[in-house]
Write a structure and sequence with these properties.
Blueprint lengths: L10 H36 L1 H4 L6 H8 L3 E7 L2 E7 L5 H8 L18 E4 L2 E4 L12 E3 L12 H8 L9 H14 L5 H7 L10 H15 L4
Parallel strand pairs: 1-5
Antiparallel strand pairs: 1-2, 3-4, 3-5
This protein binds FE2/S2 (inorganic) cluster (2 copies).
């Protein structure tokens, strides 16, 4: 027997009630989620202070979180034993720690070639390479190409052919050209352009760079 004073809701009304309760439960879930996110963001923002209230001051925490690593490598013929932050790029090691500022930082993203150096005779973008992976390697930078006052044939050819204007890309261009010749990738203009295409020159000195590389090729016999 049904109770007329408290009738069961119609099926439409039941659907409506269910939708409503779903809506509120979803709202509640969202509120809880947002609270959690807010809590997490605050924790990230406050960082170590929140988690280490009784520990050393923040300045000391920064250094204690990084484990320095030892590295031994040869640069331009000289042995180096170094201790460094493992996140250091080879380019930053050269420029910031060893003051070998010939290698340039153009894009810092492996796109311009200004940071090109030779590692075990092969050209690499030093901005893209962590220094710590070069344990025991031999690195040659633009500073290591000349023999005393005697310029490397590629350096001399760049000067003779005006292979630069502002000069910012030039150390990378020259290191890359040295490797290009060693690789045998300088048979003709098209091949030189192709194998030097990772080195950009915003001054547009490309025709003179190609001429310089051809001269170095013809003088040294490398690159054919
Ligand atoms: Fe390394 Fe541009 S600085 S490629
Ligand atoms: Fe200026 Fe190449 S000489 S960017």
């Amino acid at each position: 027997m049904s109770d007329e004073s408290d009738p069961l809701p119609s099926s439409d009304a039941q659907d409506e009630l269910r939708d409503e309760s779903l809506f509120f439960s979803e709202l509640e879930t969202r509120r809880r989620f947002l609270k959690k996110v807010a809590g997490t963001s605050a924790a990230l923002a406050l960082g170590p202070q929140l988690m280490n209230l009784s520990a050393a001051p923040a300045a000391n925490q920064k250094t204690s979180l990084i484990t320095m690593v030892d590295l031994q490598l040869k640069i331009n013929g000289a042995e180096h034993r170094l201790r460094l932050d493992p996140r250091t790029s080879l380019l930053d090691l050269l420029r910031e720690q060893l003051q070998l500022t010939g290698s340039k930082k153009g894009c810092d993203h492996g796109q311009c070639g200004a940071c090109t150096v030779l590692v075990n005779g092969r050209r690499i973008n030093s901005c893209l390479s962590l220094a710590v992976v070069h344990e025991g390697d031999e690195v040659t930078t633009i500073e290591g190409l000349a023999q005393g006052d005697q310029l490397h044939p590629v350096q001399a050819a760049f000067i003779e052919h005006d292979g630069f204007q502002c000069g910012y890309c030039t150390p990378g261009q020259i290191c890359s050209a040295v490797a290009c010749l060693q690789e045998g990738h300088a048979k003709d203009d098209a091949q030189i352009r192709e194998w030097m295409s990772g080195n950009l020159c915003r001054c547009g000195a490309y025709p003179n760079i190609v001429e310089a590389i051809k001269q170095a090729r013809d003088k040294t016999g490398a690159g054919r």
